[in-house]
Amino acid sequence: MKRIAVLGSGTGSNFQALLEAENLGGEIVLVISDQSGAGILEKAERAGIAHDVVTGGGLCERILNRLDGIDLVCLAGFMRIVKEPLLGAFADRILNIHPSLLPKYPGKEAWVQAVEDGASESGCTVHYVDAGVDTGEVILQARVPVLPDDTPESLHARIQVEEHRIYPEAIRRVLS
Ligand code: GRF
After folding, report:
1. Which of 13, 53, 79, 141 could crosslink 9 through cysteines, CB 3.0-4.6 Å?
2. What is the CATH number of the domain that holds 69?
3. What is the end-to-end Cα distance of the chain in Å, rounded?
4. 10 lines ligand 1 (CB under 6 A)
5. Domain count, the chain
6. pLDDT in tens, the chain (176 residues)
């Protein structure tokens, strides 16, 4: 069984979806957050999964030091850019979920970008992480409509339903 670490800064709804997914092809054994109060840590605690907070300088090196025996790193709302030495040590073994149809709307709050742009559709993307911001090779995408009365929040909620569906599927593909 492959060993998966999840990195997140926020509520951790994607982490929860991965936990509940069947036949993921691996087991989530570790959660790391850069935010001490993050909901993702609470969810890990409740699920009995080892979890840790890593903050401050040299973040990527200190995270890497905790990844002994890990096969795959999944970013789930991790609001930091992954840099060396973590990036090189886990080349092609770090995935991210992003709330837009990349290459459209990279960076922060992609759902706000989509609404402000007047887009008629958006979605989400699971991709490999490289040195750029949301630029790595795409593994899987899902589309959702942007409705005329959407707020950024209502669009994000619709996107998240699809995130929770395609992230487990993408991991399954990568690990199989
Ligand atoms: C998701 O929309 C994800 O695409 C983005 O950050 C959000 C994290 O949400 N990278 P959650 O913490 O998994 O609920």
Report:
1. 79
2. 3.40.50.170
3. 11
4. yes
5. 2
6. 999 999 999 999 999 999 999 999 999 999 999 999 999 999 999 999 999 999 989 999 999 999 999 999 999 999 999 999 999 999 999 999 999 999 999 999 999 999 999 999 999 999 999 999 999 999 999 999 999 999 999 999 999 999 999 999 999 999 99
